[in-house]
Amino acid sequence: xxxxxxxxxxxxxxxxxxxxxxxxxxxxxxxxxxxxxxxxxxxxxxxxxxxxxxxxxxxxxxxxxxxxxxxxxxxxxxxxxxxxxxxxxxxxxxxxxxxxxxxxxxxxxxxxxxxxxxxxxxxxxxxxxxxxxxxxxxxxxxxxxxxxxxxxxxxxxxxxxxxxxxxxxxxxxxxxxxxxxxxxxxxxxxxxxxxxxxxxxxxxxxxxxxxxxxxxxxxxxxxxxxxxxxxxxxxxxxxxxxxxxxxxxxxxxxxxxxxxxxxxxxxxxxxxxxxxxxxxxxxxxxxxxxxxxxxxxxxxxxxxxxxxxxxxxxxxxxxxxxxxxxxxxxxxxxxxxxxxxxxxxxxxxxxxxxxxxxxxxxxxxxxxxxxxxxxxxxxxxxxxxxxxxxxxxxxxxxxxxxxxxxxxxxxxxxxxxxxxxxxxxxxxxxxxxxxxxxxxxxxxxxxxxxxxxxxxxxxxxxxxxxxxxxxxxxxxxxxxxxxxxxxxxxx
Amino acid sequence: xxxxxxxxxxxxxxxxxxxxxxxxxxxxxxxxxxxxxxxxxxxxxxxxxxxxxxxxxxxxxxxxxxxxxxxxxxxxxxxxxxxxxxxxxxxxxxx
Lengths: 491, 95
Description:
The complex is a heterodimer.
Chain A: H1 2-5, H2 9-17, H3 23-36, E1 43-46, H4 48-63, E2 74-78, H5 105-112, E3 116-121, H6 160-167, E4 173-178, H7 184-190, E5 193-196, E6 216-221, H8 224-234, E7 264-268, H9 278-293, E8 297-301, H10 309-324, H11 342-353, H12 356-369, H13 375-395, E9 401-405, H14 421-425, H15 432-437, E10 441-448, E11 454-461, H16 466-480
Chain B: H1 5-14, H2 21-38, H3 73-77, E1 83-84, E2 87-88
Antiparallel strand pairs in B: 1-2
Helix pairs in contact in B: 1-2
């Protein structure tokens, strides 16, 4: 049934509407593909029976001429979104047996619109990582491999399961989240499209919190149009999240294919970093040429505080994480490890329940917030964050969007960068600025490197201007004509 | 700034995370290296800059002060490691 799993989301929606196939057939084909792809470790929970029940209900609605914009399409859900009655782990041992009694707003929106859940997707523990290697359930393997190599590569992180599942046709599209690049970097590493919308576009209610002022949900999909279709359903104001924006959700798919003639696209000179492979620089130049051909005006711009974004992020994010993760105390839910007294129970529970990277970040966060250091670290980082956001404000007075590479390298080997935390953090050098400023950013697959691995280009837009990003991303996608798929070595 | 093993022990205690003694030195090295890298923020002139505390330019909304949720003790207790008679069971705190 590989014809059905090979469909785009858009084609599947049309096929279901015209009754070319049923949701049950489409869902079965995907559940079989998920089972056959277990070596990739993309799913941490498969829910084929639930999926089938949802698919049959969808088929009933389609037969009656009813149904929402996602009626009957099987999706994968990052295991950071709480799903009622289905285990939600955040990739952590501390939530190994946690079954929410409520549904996240984003997934509620998807079920409202008719989507079918195939299962829960692997991720870095609490979304803290850039290679999916911090997951308590083991890393996801990238479906892509370098030419003539059996080496296992990372799909990126933290949404590694989402990106791998979409690239390997294990779902039509997937939900993901992005705190410092966790949608866009895995999308770039797997030849998929990922958009982190404006902070506040999607409700954070029911998403396991990492760094609340940076976390934002978004889709990973096979095409720009598919990403627009899924984001339209995920987004929307939610009174249960006080930072959710009371803004209308535009008809995102209608922006894909719109002419981009006359749009001004900025090229930030500070994104030319030392040690970046020449191939990525070349791809960036191709992107510039494609947008010029499509009628865009290319303008060089400066974002002078770019290099300070990562160090500022590694104060702000761990500080917020240390506060958010204080809730895992072994009392109300999650793991409890017994001890001699209450403090002992807390310490044993958290010592055993959290993995190394999560503990490291909680310790950094606790340190920078502790008495005597708050001003030197946290307050200073918040001021630098303001300067980074101001850089963007100034650039957007001259241009409509920015074009950059998504990541400074292609997918690297599993195990390659686990020894040095700072080397791992540098993965997010081009993506993290966008989270700090709260802006939308999209990664589009733009080509293969000399080893045959996908590379992505990133477009950054003004707050709430995802529409322009979808138009530009569509233009890049069309010009790049990226049609490559990984070989199915796992099945 | 270099962090020593004693500081790691103190911070781990503040964070209520048990770290074994043999992890303190390696952690001190890792955290020192991360914080050393973060030090470059000192190059930025932040004089008179308003700290950015939120990514959105919106005021926090207010709502009516009324009960909108609750009365679902069973759901709240569903994932409790220990429970009895509609309560969480926790370790003894008062002697």
